[in-house]
Amino acid sequence: MPDKWVDWNKTTRSKDYRGSASFATFMIIGPTCFFLGILFAMFPYDFPLLWTKDPISEAYLDQLEIHLKFVHQSPPLIARVLSIMVGVGFLGFFIKLFRASESNMLFDGASLVLYLIGVGVYVANIVKGLRLVSAGAWHQDDFDPTTVGVGRPGVGGGDPLTGGEIILGREDSLKVMAASNTILALVLVGVLVLQAGQWYAERKDNEDYEKLERMDAAGGPSSPTGEKTKKKQ
Question: At residue 100, what are phi and psi to the nearest 5 degrees?
């Protein structure tokens, strides 16, 4: 990797090293936990769709659809707060990856990839699903349940609701959204695991360094001072 992106001389003990104790790490962990909290709040709605074999009643689907409409049609302030939190996470990654060390590229680079996957899942599946629910796609006059999976009948590629893509039935679409929430939660947990892994690697590195320092100060046989003394003898 080019030296302009990675500082190979930077270690976990360098003064300009941005590790697990830096403020940028909290800029990453904070939004990640924030979004995990939102997904946890959605779990009671997603659980009957994915994790039980009991038949799903129409009343439950109606209740879930009303809830999702309420979420999507919330005041613009809510969407702005979500966008700000996403931006804070990206800013934390960019700060840690500026003139990154090898440790930053390993842990923070992988975390950034997972974070991007999470944003992609959110935009491609969840936002699109919320728009369909809010628009009442399954309750429009031109929606024919017998043509589910082949697109809206009589509507071409300029369809403002689906953009010409296929539209699933209501239950299948809600299951896709629930599965997307689960995938997003796993991705965000992966970000936290990588950040915790960075903290553990730094801890072990500091322990090894301090052990070598103590051995050097004591003139142990494996230290440079101890080797010189042994040669003189």
Answer: -75, 155
